[in-house]
Design a protein that fits this description.
By secondary structure, the chain is α+β, with helices and mostly antiparallel strands. 39% of the residues lie in helices and 11% in strands.
């Protein structure tokens, strides 16, 4: 079930302007991702932030692993590119961290919700418990210096833009959405079902495999973050 869900999500996200994705070694469980911030008011606007995303065999019962390929100056990004973000933590309430189950990963989450949460985190850092203490202190005490540091990372990120790839902007992405809406474009459930030769919804598949896959997830999944 995991590979079918991931392939469906991959095809869906491939149509979006704010990310550029590909499979690593044609492996549906390993994605190359670039996040492209389209909010012109963001300090990260115009950057091409490459990352890798690896999925467990029991996805979506356990969360994927995400990390930026280059260091990114941000209070919630570790030096190795991993993130401190609740949505990527294993399912269930964590009394040690105080995170509620609703803040952490659940099988109804999708890659899109993870990526959008990360994009939101870039501009809404959690500085009370930073992964990068120096970045958190700089953001609080000297926002202009913080912006200058982010600009340096952004300029370095542009070296990762692949040949022939046209970087979207706020204006071009907005026009693209207008064209899609005018054409009545939509990624419907029926189209997805045709592609994968089935009619079951994700929810129905979860119900059907609830006992076996759910038990396996409980045995194999460990929260490392």
């Amino acid at each position: 079930m995991a590979d079918k869900i991931l392939l469906r999500e991959f095809k869906d996200l491939a149509k979006e302007s704010w990310t550029n994705i590909s499979l690593a070694n044609e492996n549906i469980y390993e994605w190359n991702i670039a996040l492209i911030v389209l909010n012109p008011d963001s300090d990260y606007y115009g950057g091409y932030y490459k990352a890798t995303m690896n999925f467990p065999s029991n996805y979506p019962y356990q969360p994927p692993d995400f990390r930026f390929n280059r260091p990114l100056w941000h209070p919630n990004v570790y030096d190795d590119g991993r993130l401190c973000i609740s949505i990527l933590h294993a399912p269930g309430e964590d009394t040690m961290s105080g995170e509620l189950a609703g803040e952490r990963w659940s099988p109804v989450q999708r890659v899109e919700s993870v990526l959008l949460s990360i994009m939101s985190l870039l501009d809404d850092a959690e500085v009370s418990s930073p992964a990068n203490v120096d970045a958190g202190v700089m953001l609080r005490r000297d926002p202009e210096a913080y912006k200058a540091r982010v600009l340096r990372d952004k300029e370095v990120s542009l070296a990762d833009i692949p040949a022939g790839f046209e970087m979207p902007t706020h204006e071009t992405a907005f026009k693209k959405e207008e064209v899609k809406e005018a054409a009545g474009f939509s990624w419907s459930d029926s189209e997805a079902e045709d592609d994968f030769g089935g009619s079951e919804s994700d929810e129905e598949m979860f119900d059907e495999d609830e006992t076996t896959d759910g038990e396996e997830a409980g045995e194999e999944g460990e929260d490392e973050g």
